[in-house]
Design goal:
Blueprint (H helix, E strand, L loop, with lengths): L11 H8 L3 E6 L2 E13 L27 E6 L3 E7 L8 E11 L1 H11 L12 H8 L16 E4 L10 E4 L17 E4 L23 H13 L6
Antiparallel strand pairs: 1-2, 1-6, 2-5, 2-8, 3-4, 4-5, 7-8
Helix pairs in contact: 2-3
Amino acid sequence: MPVSRRWFVRPVLDVAHGLLDAHLVRTTPDGRVTLRVTEVEAYAGETDPASHAFRGLSRRNATMFGPPGRLYVYRHMGLHHCANVVGAEEGTARAVLLRAGEVVEGADLATARRQVRGVVRSPVDLARGPARLADALGLTLADDGADLLTGEGLELLVREHAVPAGAVETGPRVGVGAAGADPERFPWRLWLAGDPTVSQFRGPSQPRRRTGQTSAVDLVRGREARRSSGEQRS
């Protein structure tokens, strides 16, 4: 269903959860591509050391400060574009990175766009990762600030009811360092459990598991405890 501006004025993790299984429709003179969102990452401005807005307003991150319901597009390392959905009240920088999705309409056009940038190995890989997702939709810096509510070239359609919590996994964000990588404070990558289009996590930490399962963090803590008690020696 279409959304109102108020839909975005919520805690950023609620917006991130609500974006899972949503459809983003991109219409250009070349045709239309519709993407089903399967993986996202939340970023919380001045309270989040991994956020572009952690140190305040700049020319690059201005779209993050609102109004909500717009697209924040930036160029990563001068090579790739990444797309984010802006949430929270205007003046409060919050955004959700669109990490991965499934192209459910316009696969030929999305594939042609991706092949300009590199090899497309399978339909599963078409929008698997934030740079591939932006390429498949044809998003560039020119789309920074685009309104997702007008239906003019970009439209966001969300589920009437959010995906059940049991169908969503969470874990540390990808490519984030220092304090922003803390999996205890920021397990802010969310994805649809078992969906093949979700990007592969690469990093020192493993995704957080649900109660009753041992996480990588717990294993590390156990090793450190044994070292301190003299059970292990280097």
